[in-house]
Amino acid sequence: MTAPGAPSSAAVAAELLDLGTATVYEASRQECFLPYTLRPAWPGARVAGPALPVRTAPADNLPLHIAVEAARPGQVLVVAAQGEPCGYWGEVLTVAAQQRGIRGLVIDGGVRDTAALAALDFPTFSTSVAVRGTVKDDPGTVGAPILLGGVPVRDGDLVLADPDGVLVLPAERVDAVLAAARQRQADERRYLDRIRQGELTLDIYRLRDRYAAT
Length: 214
What we know:
Elements: H1 9-19, H2 21-28, E1 39-40, E2 47-55, H3 62-70, E3 76-80, H4 91-99, E4 104-111, H5 114-119, E5 124-129, E6 141-142, E7 146-148, E8 151-153, E9 158-162, E10 165-169, H6 174-196, H7 201-204, H8 208-213
Parallel strand pairs: 2-3, 3-4, 4-5
Antiparallel strand pairs: 1-5, 2-6, 2-9, 7-8, 9-10
């Protein structure tokens, strides 16, 4: 429940996304990044929202159809699909997801119909783009916690994804990370001002003693 006068969860997610995954990751002081192989399926994709974790059997997208029904509006599907280069997701599931208010998709596996995903403005991050088909036999899991690249993903944790990477922040740490990310951004702006005035990063970051020691 959001306290009176406090920013909404959607507003917090949007601000963190504006701060950017690089700044948020550094501010978080935790290993919250998903595998670097997760890349935008189309240029400019970016998304933030609460996670709905999904696990599939290799080359089986039945759990994604189930997740479209189960998801709450505003959620981002985060799918452990075993890295399989298959077209788990495409235009049909995207339209179905948008009808349910799903905000985006992060999948350790393949997607297809990328031109349609871009035209529909559906933020999608995947480890491959692949036309190979899938079966629909194993329901997998929807909503149960998963591990993706060693990072735990729970229902309601916050997903941030932009061209620099994908993060998952534990729900209980979001407010603290936001405060730290705001401070980091303010510090970096001051550093940039000093650099433009002629200072060196060796001095700003107090690295000269380390440099001299070598």
